[in-house]
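From the methods appendix. Each design record in this collection lists the tokenized structure first, followed by the designed amino acid sequence. Records were kept in a plain field format so they could be parsed without special tools. The example shown here is representative of the layout used throughout.

RECORD:
FOLD TOKENS (219 positions):
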């Protein structure tokens, strides 16, 4: 199967309204162009330098989503063009996105990354930290950041009950935060190549799939 066939096979499994982020990190621009030619417009990268380099050579109607842990000093590299930063995991990062978006006269969509997995290595706010931050009202002063929803990465396990537990938790957090943000808060980003069919059961509106489209990455 080529990229076009794999892409269309995955799209055929997604309900209406679910966005596909093609995780293109570590893949060369030519492979992204193949997916673009097959109709894909949302691509996910985890390294700002790589995203900026690909932005320069690929069509300008691509929506670029930052999916990896983002250092504050790298925000300025992608602020002029990034569509969404889905891995926002700290107050400092939100402040820097606000600052750089303002400099570029843009509003940048963000997702709040919440840590619900069993592994300590995964990034993200704990639910308690996030609620404390939101209660402070600091976010209300950010005019160049638009909170679109939440994101999480489920525990890396073959035990489906643990994955379901993680998705149950993030779905509850999403529903509980929704009234605070209003209509713009519409994105529940859960599900990757291995677990996205389960994520769809929990109302995922954005899945992040790389290997199943592009094959194994070239590191």
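DESIGN:
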């Amino acid at each position: 199967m080529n990229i076009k066939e794999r892409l269309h096979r995955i799209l055929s499994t997604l309900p209406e309204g679910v966005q596909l982020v093609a995780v293109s990190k570590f893949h060369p621009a030519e492979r992204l162009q193949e997916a673009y030619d097959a109709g894909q417009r949302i691509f996910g990268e985890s390294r700002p330098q790589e995203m900026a380099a690909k932005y320069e050579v690929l069509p300008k109607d691509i929506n670029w989503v930052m999916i990896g842990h983002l250092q504050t000093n790298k925000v300025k590299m992608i602020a002029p063009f990034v569509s969404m930063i889905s891995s926002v995991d700290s107050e400092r990062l939100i402040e820097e996105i606000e600052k750089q978006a303002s400099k570029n006269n843009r509003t940048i969509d963000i997702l709040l990354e919440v840590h619900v997995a069993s592994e300590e290595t995964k990034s993200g706010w704990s639910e308690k930290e996030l609620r404390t931050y939101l209660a402070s009202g600091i976010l209300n002063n950010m005019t160049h950041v638009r909170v679109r929803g939440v994101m999480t990465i489920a525990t890396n396990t073959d035990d489906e009950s643990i994955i379901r537990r993680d998705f149950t938790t993030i779905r509850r957090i999403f529903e509980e935060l929704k009234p605070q943000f209003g209509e713009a808060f519409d994105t529940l980003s859960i599900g990757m190549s291995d677990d996205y069919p389960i994520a769809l059961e929990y109302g995922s509106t954005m899945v992040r799939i790389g290997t199943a489209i592009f094959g194994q990455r070239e590191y």
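APPENDIX NOTE: DSSP finds nine helices and eight strands in the chain.
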